[in-house]
Each structure stands twice: as C-alpha cells, then as structure tokens.
User: Which sequence fits this backbone?
C-alpha cells in the first residue's frame, strides 16, 4: 500500500496541491501502477524515485493525461479532477518538462513559449504579452533566456529553461520534471535546482522524477519511492539517507560505492594520436584527440553528451571512419579501409558495449540467443558448417551467459525487447566481456539500468580491468566516472580538455572542464 | 497469457482478413445482380473441384511462390523489391537461351540449365538497382520499377529484332526443341499411377518452387548470411555496429531475390509456352508482393498465400467463363484480397490483439 500520510511542510488541514488516490494502471498482464496514493503539499518539492520500469513514467503520464488510469482519482487543490488529456492537465495547472524537450528548433524562444497558447490569429499581441511575462518570470526566478534567440542556438540548459517558462506561461502551479539533469553539466544542474527552489518558495509545487539519489537528497522536501509498480514508501527527505532510499528502491541492501583496488597499469594497450572525425554533414566532431590506455586501467571520458564521446567510441569500434593514428598493442589500426569495420575491430581484440544498446547493441526483435551471437556470428564455435550456423550451440552459450550474468528471465528464446533495460544491458555486457578483449569500449554502461544491475555491471568492468585489460569508459554520469575510472579525461567540443586523477579532483573542477573552461583556468 | 498467440497472428489474422474480403466481394457481386453464393461455387469447383482445375491453380501458384519468395527475402533485408516483373522477364530470356543454346538430350538437363540461367539473368537484372541502392542511395523502389520497363523494352527489342525466326510474324522466339519440354503433372503423377487431368500447365517447376521454399527458409534462418540479412533488415545501425556491411547485404539479398523472380520463367516459358513470348510474366511479379505480405515473409506462409492467389486466378477465369460477371470484377476481388490481407491486416490484428488481451485478463 502506498502509505502516504506525510503532509510535507504544511499543516494537514490545508488541501494538498495534488493528491493521487489509489491509481492503478495495467498494460495487458503488466501492472505498471498498483494502487498508488501520494499527497504533495503546496509549495514543496516532492521527489519520485525508483528503478527503471518501477512505474514512475506511467504515473506521470496518467497525471498529464496521456494514459487513463484503470482505477483511482486525481485530486487537485482538494477537488477531484479527471484528466482525460493534456489540455485538461494544463487547465488544472499542471506543467510538464519532459526528458526530451518538445521545442521547435528553428523558432525563437518567444514563439516556442506561445506555441499552442496563442490568443487569436494575430501573433503580435500574444508575442508582446509573452515578452512581458517572460521578463517578469526571468526577474522573479533567475530564469533568464533571450526571448529572441533561436532554440537551436541555445545550450541544453537554456532549452530546458524554455520548457519551464512554457509551463509557467501557461500558469502552471504544479511543475513535473522528468529526469531533468540527464543532459546538464553539474553547474547547469545546480542552477536548475536553484530555480526550482525559487519556484517552491513562491508557492509552486514541484514533482521531481529522477533516479539520482544525490539530487533527491539535495533538493526535495519529501520523497516517494516506487518499486515494481507500487509506492513502497513516502518519507521526509531530511529523515532519510541515500542508503535507505537505495534499499527501498531495490528491495535489498545495495553497495553504492564501487569497490576496487588501486589500478596496476601495465604496458600500453591503446594509443590514439591526433584523431579527427567528421560526421555525415562534414562537421568535425573530433578535433585531434590524443590519449593512451594501459593494460589494467580504466580511462573514464567525462563530458556533456554530444561533445564527441560517441564519435570516439564509433571510430574505435569500427562504426565510423576517421583520420589520425590508432595503435592497439603497438599495431596500427585501419581507420578508413577494408579493415576499419566492426568485424576487424573484434578480430583485433576490441569489444564494444555501445552507448545506445537499443539502437546499436541489440536487435530488439531478435531473441536473446540471436543477440548473444550478434557481432560474433562468425565465431568458429557458432558454426555448424561452412554455410550453416549452429543455433543450438548459440542457444547453449546464451544460457550459460545468462546464468553467469544473472539475466532475468533466463529464457534464450525471449525477444530482446521483452527484457528490462538492465537485463538487456547485461546481455550486451555478457556478450562483449566474455570475449575477453584486450580493450573494452563502454558507453553509458548504466543508462536506464536499475541500481541492482548497475552494481553488477560495474563489478564486471572492474574485474576485466583486474584481469589486465584496458577499458575506455564513456559516461555522462559524473558519479560513475568518479567512482569507476582510474584516470579521467574530460571532453568538450571534440577535444580533450584535460586529464585528472579521480582522487585529486572534484566535481566542480571537472564541471568547469566539461563546460569548456581550459585546464589552466580551472 | 493475455498476449496474442503466434498461431493467431499467422493463421487467424489472414483468415479473418480473407473472410472480410470475400464478404465485400460478395456484396459487389450482389450489387451487379449476380448470385455471390453461385459465384463462389463456380470458383471453388473450377479451381479446386477437379484435377484439371488444380492443374491450373498449381501452375499459377508456382509463379507466385517464386515471386513471393523473392519479395519475402528482400523484405527480410528491409528492401522492397518491386522489380519482380523485370527480373522474371529477364529470367525468361535466360530460359530461352538455355533451351535454344544446346541440343539437350533430356528434359532434366535442360531444366538444370534453365534453372541456372534464369536465376543468373534475374539476379543480374536485380544487381543494378541493388548496387545503386547500396552505393549511391538511389531508392530501390524507384529503380526496380524503372528496371521493369527497361526489361519489357529490352525483351520487345530482342524478340522483334534478334530472336524472332525468319518469316515469323509474331514477336516470339523459336519454339524450344521437344527434348526441353518439361513433364506436366499428368505425366509425373502417371509414373506413380496417380491419375491427373491431361493438358494442364502445372509442371515439374512446382517441385522446383517447393525446393526454393525450403532453401529460402534455410538461408534466412539457418545460415550466417540469413542472420546478417535479418539483422540488417531490422536495424541498419546495429548491423554496422556488428560489422555487417550494408553494401554486401543489399547486394546479396537482391541477387537472391532477383534469382528467385527469374526462376519463375522456368514455369511459364519452359513449362508452359515452350517459347519466349512478350509479357509471359503477366503481373506475377506484383502479385508476389501481396503473397509475401500475406505470407508474412515466411516460406510456409508464402506457399499458402501463393496457393490462394492461384485459386483466385483460376477461379476468376472460370467465373468469367461461366457467368455474366465481367472479367474486371475478378480483378476487383483479387484487389480486395490484396487490400485486406496485405495492406489492411492491422485492421484485423489490432482488435484481435485487444480481444486476446481482454480474455487474458479475464482468465487471470
């Protein structure tokens, strides 16, 4: 039961800004939300935390009118308010900031703000009004954005502010933010939280959905924990700890810190010299990368998404072409010719856990066993004859890997799309690590992965390092880089801004490097 | 379970779509003042009521198996090969070359030669659009359909100017030597003492088609190439990650597809006409698309869908013969079947899925 008897910062007599009573929602046999009840006090920041697939997004979609609940009711300001569509949600004063922004790239800020809220056919009047409102909001809440700037020219952090402005312009009193910091630098995230606190102090109610415990601890007043569709607890943030929340989320004790011995780097495995990559539009995405990784070492690449990390992984993994020099164990790799594809890289001893497992790493419609052979389908142990594959052997191998990596459910014939994010990732990691590569490329290993699986995947990566292999880790999660990497290189705009040792740096310094402030200035 | 079981997706959906198509066809027949029940009776007895009818139904079905498989294997690679017409036209050229090239002592050798050449010619005709798609990004739908016209024009030219025997008026090749004539079902079943009507066009090519079904199944689900084709068809990005070359897979899938289309000519040109005629493909290349859609790109599904379309072809011909229902209406019926089983099958699938979901929940 969602035992939610905490009234936040206000006396229990006042009506809650928003109250959910017994919300249930099933998708076929899957019960995404089971009898969820929460009460969020007016003028408070309420966090909702839970693993992937715990039902957070479903709950918020119900609140915003995307889904209709099978049972239960939504109460806003003490009144039962049915929300059949997003228009009703807006009318009820609910504003939503999605993880992926819904902005028109080649419109100005002002045009985006009034989009869908224009008053009449003449735009000039609404634009003038919006300009004034925006100026007021900027003053009040530190929400400065140039109203005439085009969205495509704005940084991600500013784009997010436009999303918040859009909601406020529609007079939202309740603001829901879904994983808002995924794309932000630490400094931008701090700024966002300052804005949110300002909004709260002005009486707005904020619901923050995240999987980052630190954000919950720093910003929220109360927090609800979801696990497998149910609300397992609602607690005052001041009275809980990250460890307790993690345990509530997973249902067992979790190790938040990666346990690893100091690295004992050996000979150089990977040398990258002056690596340059252009994308299909001819834009240079890597502008001369130099780095080395030694055996038994994890090099972490920190940076805000989109600063060339993906391209680096793609060139090393044989997906994209580039110019420059890459040497693996002293041997130069082909960067443009016949031997620059994924098959050659695998043969050279490079394994790749790609950033986006659903787009690159797995064929979602394929079964688990078909995916276990993916990329290694030429491996001799998977062949029956010159022409035929040995499907039985692959299935047997899949069963073995599923057992070692605790993939659930351990059914090789189940399609990849039917596994949870964490289990999908375990399939990919199992496939790549079990090849015992000299160099493992890992992109966002724990994105969309539940805490229990994160712990496991981190252990596997460290184990590979301890076996004397080189690991290149790319992650936008600074916490992950800080705790996993033996050395940290920060990327910004296709360049490496600097290298740091994790125990001799801090988030602030890395954050400055991530924002493009050069090493000397930081 | 609550999820739609596989058999329902494979059998129930096409069956319901088919019933809807037939019901609407019946209404159309009713609207022009004919008796739909009588019409259905004529179609069924005409196509399936005698071994004579079966002889025609299976002949047509053989064509559709080849073209259906051709479209199906391209579908698995995410490619839409609508150039079956052109590839089969060129296949016919291959058959003619095979049959006229050498004096074959026995039909079996001639069959072997025409199988090889028709497949090679069909594949060659698919190679150009495939290469353009793989290397230049020219959309294969556009190029294959253009190649249909080029093939028709090419055949026209060759028949009129090159292959037509001196003194012959119609644009057709010389008649193939009698040794190359393929045994029909009457002869073949006669070897085993099974009676089958004389004079029907169904011939040994039917068994080539069945072998092709098995071969395509094996290629798609048992070989490394098939694995790569399916990977590429599901996600090009993931395929590149896995080191699968898009150029290579596009080429291979289209070559196999073109070869299968080309093989169709063995049935029509060598099995039936015994000479190369203009337009011996008769739209079978396009029917192949419907067959592959309805057969869910699976060789077993393709086989049954081809049989259905064979039935529609033969039953339709009978209908035109015995009733006042105009020939055009047959095309309407065929179109309705294509519409409902091919293009609109989600119309049946989605409600059916809901039904299964609801029953699943009720049963829990």
Assistant:
């Amino acid at each position: 039961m969602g035992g939610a008897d905490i009234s936040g910062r206000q006396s229990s007599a006042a009506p809650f800004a928003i109250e959910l009573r017994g919300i249930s929602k099933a998708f076929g046999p899957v019960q995404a939300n089971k009898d969820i009840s929460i009460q969020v006090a007016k003028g408070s920041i309420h966090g909702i935390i839970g693993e992937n697939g715990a039902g957070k997004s479903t709950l918020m979609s119900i609140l915003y009118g995307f889904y209709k609940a099978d049972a239960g009711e939504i109460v806003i300001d003490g009144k039962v308010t049915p929300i059949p569509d997003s228009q009703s949600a807006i009318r009820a004063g609910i504003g939503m900031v999605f993880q992926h922004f819904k902005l028109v790239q080649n419109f100005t800020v002002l045009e985006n703000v009034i989009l869908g809220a224009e008053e009449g056919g003449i735009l000039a009047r609404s634009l003038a009004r919006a300009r004034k409102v925006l100026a007021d909001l900027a003053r009040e809440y530190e929400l400065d954005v140039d109203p005439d700037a085009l969205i495509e020219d704005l940084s991600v952090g500013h784009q997010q502010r436009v999303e918040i402005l859009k909601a406020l312009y529609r007079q939202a009193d309740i603001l829901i933010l879904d994983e808002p910091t995924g794309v932000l630098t630490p400094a931008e995230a701090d700024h966002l939280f300052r804005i949110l606190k300002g909004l709260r102090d002005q009486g707005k109610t904020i619901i923050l959905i995240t999987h980052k415990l630190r954000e919950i601890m720093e910003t929220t007043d109360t927090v609800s924990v979801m696990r497998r569709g149910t609300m397992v607890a609602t607690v005052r943030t001041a009275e809980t700890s990250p460890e307790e929340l993690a345990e509530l989320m997973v249902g067992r004790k979790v190790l938040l810190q990666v346990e690893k011995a100091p690295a004992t780097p050996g000979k150089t495995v990977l040398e990258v010299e002056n690596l340059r990559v252009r994308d299909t539009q001819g834009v240079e995405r890597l502008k001369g990368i130099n780095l080395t990784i030694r055996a038994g070492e994890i090099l972490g690449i920190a940076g805000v998404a989109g600063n060339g990390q993906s391209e680096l992984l793609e060139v090393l993994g044989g997906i994209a072409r580039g110019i420059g020099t890459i040497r693996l164990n002293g041997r130069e790799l082909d960067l443009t010719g016949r031997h620059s594809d994924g098959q050659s890289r695998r043969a050279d001893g490079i394994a790749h856990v790609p950033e986006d497992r659903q787009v690159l790493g797995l064929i979602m419609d394929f079964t688990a066993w078909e995916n276990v052979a993916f990329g290694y389908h030429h491996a001799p142990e998977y062949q029956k004859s010159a022409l035929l594959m040995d499907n039985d052997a692959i299935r047997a191998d899949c069963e073995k890997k599923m057992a070692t990596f605790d993939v659930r459910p351990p059914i090789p014939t189940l399609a990849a799309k039917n596994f949870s994010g964490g289990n999908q990732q375990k399939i990919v990691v199992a496939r790549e690590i079990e090849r015992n590569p000299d160099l493992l490329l890992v992109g966002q290993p724990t994105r969309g992965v539940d805490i229990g699986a994160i712990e496991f995947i981190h252990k596997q990566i460290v184990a590979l390092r301890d076996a004397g292999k080189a690991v290149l880790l790319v992650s936008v999660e600074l916490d992950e880089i800080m705790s996993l990497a033996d050395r940290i290189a920060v990327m910004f705009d296709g360049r490496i801004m600097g290298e740091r040792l994790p125990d001799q740096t801090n988030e602030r310094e890395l954050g400055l490097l991530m924002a493009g402030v050069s090493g000397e200035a930081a | 379970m609550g999820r739609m079981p596989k058999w329902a997706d494979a059998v129930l959906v096409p069956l319901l779509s088919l019933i809807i198509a037939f019901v609407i066809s019946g209404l159309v027949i009713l609207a022009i003042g004919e008796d739909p029940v009588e019409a259905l009776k004529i179609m069924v007895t005409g196509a399936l009521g005698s071994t004579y009818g079966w002889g025609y139904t299976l002949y047509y079905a053989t064509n559709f198996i080849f073209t259906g498989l051709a479209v199906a294997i391209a579908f698995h690679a995410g490619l839409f090969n609508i150039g079956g017409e052109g590839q089969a036209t060129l296949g016919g050229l291959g058959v003619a070359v095979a049959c006229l090239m050498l004096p074959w002592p026995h039909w079996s050798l001639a069959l072997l030669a025409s199988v090889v050449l028709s497949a090679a010619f069909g594949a060659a005709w698919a190679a150009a659009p495939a290469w353009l798609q793989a290397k230049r990004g020219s959309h294969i739908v556009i190029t294959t359909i253009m190649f249909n016209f080029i093939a028709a024009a090419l055949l026209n030219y060759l028949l009129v100017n090159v292959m037509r025997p001196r003194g012959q008026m119609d644009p057709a090749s010389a008649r193939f030597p009698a040794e190359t004539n393929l045994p029909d079902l009457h002869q073949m079943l006669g070897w085993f003492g099974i009676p089958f009507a004389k004079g029907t066009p169904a011939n040994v090519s039917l068994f080539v088609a069945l072998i092709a079904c098995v071969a395509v199944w094996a290629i798609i689900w048992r070989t490394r190439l098939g694995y790569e084709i399916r990977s590429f068809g599901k996600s090009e990005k993931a395929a590149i990650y896995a080191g699968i070359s898009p150029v290579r897979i596009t080429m291979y899938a289209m070559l196999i597809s073109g070869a299968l289309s080309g093989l169709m000519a063995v049935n029509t040109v060598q099995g039936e006409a015994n000479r190369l005629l203009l337009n011996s493909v008769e739209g079978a290349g396009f029917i192949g698309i419907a067959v592959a859609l309805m057969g869910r790109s699976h060789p077993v599904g393709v086989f049954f869908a081809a049989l259905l379309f064979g039935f529609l072809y033969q039953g339709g011909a009978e209908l035109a013969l015995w009733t006042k229902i105009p020939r055009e209406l047959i095309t309407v019926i065929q179109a309705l079947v294509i519409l409902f089983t091919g293009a609109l099958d989600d119309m049946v699938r989605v409600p059916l899925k809901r039904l299964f979901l609801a029953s699943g929940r009720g049963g829990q």
